[in-house]
Design a protein that fits this description.
Length: 127
Amino acid sequence: MLAINEVEPTVNFAVTGDLPGLLAVAAVAILIPAFAEELVFRVSLAGRRGRVRAALAIAAFVLWHPVQAWLGLPMAQAVFLEPGFLAITAALGLACTLAWRISGSIWPPVLLHWLVVVGWKGLTAPV
């Protein structure tokens, strides 16, 4: 049993030894989640103008991750419920929204989202 001041990590930082698995994730992640989520949360929900609209889209993006875990979707992981992960997700949502609005193209946020997912999968290992 953990003491109150002890926190058990949900991931360890380590370079993956599974290069074929990482390449498979990289190939799939460009479509799901990167392209699909950016199309929904940036293009459809955030739109090109309005801070409130952008904030609501970012909130929906963050909330989508625990919903995936609660629904038991195949891409969901227990870490999707962690407050630290959700804070990073909010930062990614903000960065992708800014990339979308500044560039006017879906591709910069898709690339950013994809790089974060591939980097996360390549540099962390489940505990």
